[in-house]
Write a structure and sequence with these properties.
With 98 residues, the chain is an all-alpha fold. The chain contains 3 helices and no strands. The longest helix has 33 residues.
């Protein structure tokens, strides 16, 4: 007798469902996306008001600042994960009846 093949219920995630799922798995992603939007907005505003600074020098400075912020965000995320995985474990409750 042949075995039945398992059936899987696949459904396509919408962008909103995927964003909600990812934000639960990685809460720093939302902070990173907000930081990205803020940095792009500030960069566009500052570029328009850069004065006599050349475009290449401005973009190099903006790149270095952006990379520094990314390293800081990654460090904060790793520290958060380390704290949750190693130091913030719930304590086991001892059973009084055994």
């Amino acid at each position: 007798m042949a075995q039945e093949k398992p059936t899987f219920d696949y459904h396509e995630e919408t962008h909103g469902e995927k964003l909600a799922r990812k934000s639960k798995e990685s809460p720093f992603m939302i902070i990173g996306l907000a930081g990205l939007a803020t940095a792009v907005g500030y960069g566009a505003y500052a570029y328009k008001n850069r004065g006599s600074m050349s475009t290449s020098v401005y973009l190099m400075q903006f790149r270095v600042i952006s990379q520094g912020l990314v390293v800081g965000a990654l460090t904060a995320g790793m520290a958060y994960t380390l704290f949750n995985n190693h130091f913030n474990k719930p304590k086991a409750i001892k059973n009084e009846h055994t």
